[in-house]
Structure to design on (265 residues):
């Protein structure tokens, strides 16, 4: 599993951004640079395919977020945070690109979840949770026909496993530790941090320090301790990265803040 071979110095952060923080092609600073020239011999898996896949991933992520205006740009934030974590973990440029695309697409399976569950302002019933927990498998099936998403491990596997827990208590398969694809362990941390600092219909967002405290306490239980270490090392960069998600001005249920275990659905 090539994503298990991190280590070493992390590649430098992308450069070439404009004064407003975006690149000339409109991508955000958290997105990894992708080669822009294809030799035409890749069989659909070379530089041009990866570039197109990034665009598709971002579009699909926005489509999911658009189903609920209170999510703002959640998938974009998760993608950029996942990319930064991948680089901090020492992954290669190609590995980082895969993780970044999976961050955009982690919740694409929610397209198949009914609105009355997805947008419910209160706690889900056991039956509703059973339906909600299908979204990783739905997402993987949606993406499977796209060849560039189907490496091993690749975007499909990361999307399928991003709700697994380090202690084996996650879903859909109860994978644990290194049995969870590294990209999924990275996206899991990014997803929870973004979710906990966002306002949701069913609870208020936490401050960054509160959210980091929850993630620190979840190291070795919910999250890979090494990925948590990488996140904490990036503390100074997080406020700017999380800013695009914003906070919703809408009313909330009386549940208040939530823990890392209940922050994401």
């Amino acid at each position: 599993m090539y994503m298990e071979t991190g280590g070493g110095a992390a590649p430098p952060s992308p450069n070439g951004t404009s004064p407003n923080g975006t690149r000339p092609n409109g991508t955000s600073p958290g997105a990894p640079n992708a080669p822009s020239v294809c030799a035409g011999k890749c069989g659909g898996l070379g530089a041009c395919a990866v570039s197109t896949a990034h665009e598709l991933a971002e579009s699909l992520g926005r489509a999911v977020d658009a189903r609920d205006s209170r999510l703002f740009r959640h998938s974009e934030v998760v993608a950029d945070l996942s990319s930064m974590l991948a680089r901090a973990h020492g992954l290669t440029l190609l590995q980082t690109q895969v993780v970044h695309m999976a961050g955009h697409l982690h919740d694409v399976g929610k397209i198949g979840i009914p609105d009355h569950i997805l947008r419910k302002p209160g706690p889900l019933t056991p039956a509703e949770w059973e339906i909600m927990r299908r979204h990783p498998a739905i997402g993987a099936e949606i993406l499977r026909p796209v060849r560039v998403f189907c490496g091993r491990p690749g975007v499909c596997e990361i999307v399928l496993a991003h709700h697994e827990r380090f202690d084996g208590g996650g879903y859909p398969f109860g994978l644990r530790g290194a049995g969870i694809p590294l990209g999924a362990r990275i996206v899991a941390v990014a997803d929870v941090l973004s979710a906990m600092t966002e306002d949701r219909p069913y609870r208020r967002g936490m401050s960054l320090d509160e959210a980091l405290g929850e993630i620190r306490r979840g190291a070795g239980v919910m999250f890979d301790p090494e990925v948590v270490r990488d996140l904490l090392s990036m503390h100074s960069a997080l406020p700017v990265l999380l800013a695009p998600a914003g906070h919703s001005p809408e009313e909330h249920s009386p549940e208040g803040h939530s823990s890392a275990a209940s922050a994401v659905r």
About this structure: The chain has twelve helices and no strands. The first helix runs from residue 47 to 66. The chain has one domain: 42-245. The domain at 42-245 is CATH 1.10.3210.10 (Hypothetical protein af1432).
